[in-house]
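User: Just a sanity check before I run the rest of the batch. Below are the structure tokens for the first item. I only need the designed sequence back.
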């Protein structure tokens, strides 16, 4: 066997790490009105390492140096024949359009059936009757290829139970969603003239979508949702972005929805169809693309699709994942994508939400009211719910200024997020929590909102850091924090703070008093200077408790 060709093939296969798409749908519950309470004191939760990704195989170059054809065949099958992949399928990316076109002309003679094409990306999805025929094609035309990978699929798992993270009481957002976000529930213009593409299951007809609002594109999976419980997912996601009716209302209720189904009838999706969906949304004029799915491997075909869309100014928003990991799923992990984690009705990160330095921002993802199949109304959990709230807000920003690209509007949304956790961007919240009110009022010089953004207790230093943020559009000076820790009252001056700025105010905790009491109540009130008309006075107050660390 030609060892030079085998060595070239080994490099090709190393580049072609298989893509694993893992759907992360949240469970649903019967809708019930729940009012979101005030924020509470939080402590930093431990992180579980990101170990869920499929292990990387040993380098193939060393194996192919002395490989026989039989050994090469075994290695190719190891890469492509997987229980969680489309059986007898491969995704192939070519170095040039010429190589791509030449392959299309010879594919049938080579024993390969082309199932899908992405002309602009020079990529194909093929079925092979035998890996031996595919191996022959690769050996004969090794220099034509950039990457070959399996076409992986997985069915949606439920949101996991709490693992290593600190136990917290999570509060559903319920009917407090629009108050929490500061969104105008009565607006009928947000999103007008903007298209949000929903790459998901099909989107069912529902009273929350008005006549002419919903259209569909078929990329090979059909358009209509099925009857299985997983098929309500696309409907729920679309409603959160742009629904119009009570109980299933979205942020940008005047936006158009472009439904692109990327799952088959059994609820399975694959990386090639997702890439097709991105390109189809781009070609159809979408301004924003929402992808409430993810996985822990990617490939160059998906990366190229993301690159084409974002270079054209289309904002891609994706859920971070529900696995409690210190790492995001793909495509959320791609730095060009707006990745979204989940918080509950108090603004605390929910236990299941993935985190990491790539996280862009967070949004409600626990007990979020939305639509389902058969005109049902449910409460949805998961970062799948968080992402479309961000996508809808981006659409709303574009409708304010139609000259903005989706990517420019996404940057504005991130810049006007409510700081949370540690000051500034952090792995748990990204740049902060979605704040629709501030975002939509960013050009209103009179808009004022100061807030107690979070409280973080560090038992190692005996310090509670109180995060104060200026979420308005004017400099604020002369604020005072009126704090009571247990029975110890304190007053601390804060400011001046520039618009958008945050400051962390340290409070030293008396460890002897904490150990003696076991728990100290924390009551914080932010007092504004005279004459400042705060638009959201409720976020100036925070109450909670600091609990003594358990004895070792």
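Assistant: Here's the designed sequence for the first item:
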């Amino acid at each position: 066997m030609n060892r030079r060709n085998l060595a070239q093939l080994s490099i090709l296969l190393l580049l072609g790490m298989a893509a694993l798409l893992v759907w992360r749908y949240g469970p649903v519950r019967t809708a019930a009105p729940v009012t979101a309470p005030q924020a509470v004191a939080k402590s930093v939760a431990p992180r579980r390492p990101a170990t869920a990704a499929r292990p990387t195989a040993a380098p193939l170059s060393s194996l192919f140096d002395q490989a026989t054809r039989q050994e090469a065949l075994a290695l190719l099958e190891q890469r492509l024949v997987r229980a969680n992949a489309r059986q007898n399928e491969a995704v192939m990316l070519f170095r040039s359009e010429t190589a791509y076109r030449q392959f299309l002309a010879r594919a049938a003679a080579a024993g390969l059936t082309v199932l899908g094409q992405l002309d602009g990306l020079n990529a194909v999805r093929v079925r092979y009757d035998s890996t031996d025929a595919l191996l022959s094609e690769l050996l004969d035309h090794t220099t034509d290829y950039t990457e070959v990978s399996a076409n992986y699929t997985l069915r949606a798992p439920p949101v996991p139970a709490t693992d290593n993270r600190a136990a917290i009481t999570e509060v559903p957002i319920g009917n407090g969603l629009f108050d929490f976000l500061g969104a105008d529930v009565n607006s009928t213009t947000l999103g007008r003239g903007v298209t949000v593409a929903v790459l998901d299951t099909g989107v069912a007809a529902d009273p929350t979508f008005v006549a002419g609002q919903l259209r569909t594109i078929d990329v090979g999976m059909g358009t209509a949702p099925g009857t299985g419980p997983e098929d309500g997912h696309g409907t729920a996601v679309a409603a959160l972005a742009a629904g119009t009716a009570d109980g299933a209302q979205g942020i940008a209720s005047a936006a158009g929805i472009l439904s692109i189904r990327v799952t088959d009838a059994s609820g399975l999706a694959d990386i090639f169809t997702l890439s097709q969906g991105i390109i189809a949304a781009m070609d159809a004029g979408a301004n924003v693309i929402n992808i409430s799915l993810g996985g822990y491997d990617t490939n160059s075909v998906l990366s190229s699709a993301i690159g084409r869309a974002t270079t054209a100014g289309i904002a891609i928003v994706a859920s971070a994942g529900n696995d409690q990991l210190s790492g995001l799923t793909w495509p959320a992990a791609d730095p060009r994508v707006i990745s979204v984690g989940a918080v509950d009705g108090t603004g605390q990160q929910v236990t299941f939400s993935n985190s990491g330095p790539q996280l862009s921002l967070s949004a409600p993802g626990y007990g979020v009211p939305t639509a389902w199949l058969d005109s049902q109304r449910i409460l949805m959990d998961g970062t799948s719910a968080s992402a479309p709230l961000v996508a809808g807000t981006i659409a709303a920003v574009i409708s304010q200024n139609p000259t903005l690209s989706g990517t420019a509007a996404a940057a504005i949304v991130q810049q006007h997020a409510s700081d949370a956790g540690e000051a500034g961007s952090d792995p748990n919240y990204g740049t902060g929590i979605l704040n629709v009110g501030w975002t939509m009022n960013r050009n209103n010089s009179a808009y004022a909102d100061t807030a107690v953004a979070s409280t973080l207790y560090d038992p190692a230093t005996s310090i509670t850091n109180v995060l104060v943020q200026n979420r308005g559009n004017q400099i604020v000076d002369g604020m005072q924090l009126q704090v009571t820790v247990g029975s110890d009252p304190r007053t601390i001056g804060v400011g001046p703070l520039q618009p958008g700025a945050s400051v962390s105010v340290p409070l030293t905790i008396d460890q002897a008093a904490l150990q003696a009491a076991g728990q100290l109540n924390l009551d914080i009130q932010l007092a504004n200077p005279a004459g400042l008309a705060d638009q959201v006075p409720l976020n100036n107050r925070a109450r909670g408790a600091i609990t003594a660390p358990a004895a070792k």
